[in-house]
Specification:
By secondary structure, the chain is of the alpha+beta class. 46% of the residues lie in helices and 31% in strands. The protein has 4 helices and 6 strands; from the N terminus they run H-H-E-E-H-E-E-E-E-H. Strands 2-1-6-5-4-3 form a 6-stranded mixed sheet. A hairpin with a 3-residue loop joins strand 4 and strand 5. It is globular and about 50 Å long. The protein starts with a helix and ends with a helix.
Length: 169
């Protein structure tokens, strides 16, 4: 092969590698989003089945859960201690995702999400949080559960909240 042919072949090979590298994140994005969705679905399903090990399998060692009450700021181990007696009695909770939005970092190793969930007792609630990919797996770093309050009802809700705060003093 001539010197020009070798250069052309190397140029084509480098070009193909560059194009492949550029395409990889686009291909990885939907797959990684699906992985995150599967983790969140398994997380909710484990709670509904009172599967303590399955539920906490998804939290990172430094994961936190923020509940609907302002006092509910739990480390993974604190939240596990809270959940254990409920799950042992067969009292799990079922939150069914009805809508979910995911965003991935450029590197594809951090995911931010928010989801609307349906619960028989509370109706519509919102879950949001952050997952991090380490060691080939996605880990929940933070999960936040909140009540959704329609704007037109916020004033009445604030009145009830203020009254409750005053009576608890």
């Amino acid at each position: 092969m001539s010197a020009q042919g070798v250069v052309s072949t190397r140029f084509l090979a480098l070009g193909a590698l560059a194009l492949g590298a550029c395409a990889a994140p686009r291909e990885r994005g939907p797959a990684r989003s699906a992985e995150v969705g599967e983790v969140l679905d398994a997380f909710h399903q484990a709670a509904s089945k009172c599967d303590l090990e399955g539920y906490f399998r998804h939290f990172s060692a430094r994961g936190v859960f923020l509940g609907t009450d302002a006092t509910e700021h739990w480390t993974r181990e604190e939240f596990r201690a809270f959940c254990a007696p409920y799950f042992a009695r067969g009292q799990g909770w079922t939150y069914t995702p009805t809508q979910r939005t995911l965003s991935l970092s450029e590197a594809g190793d951090v995911a931010w999400f928010d989801e609307l969930l349906h619960n028989e007792k509370y109706g519509e609630v919102r879950g949001s949080g952050v997952l991090v990919r380490r060691g080939g797996a996605w880990w929940i770093e933070q999960y936040v559960m909140s009540f959704t309050v329609p704007n037109e009802l916020a004033g009445r809700w604030l009145e009830v909240r203020r009254a409750a705060a005053e009576t608890s003093r």
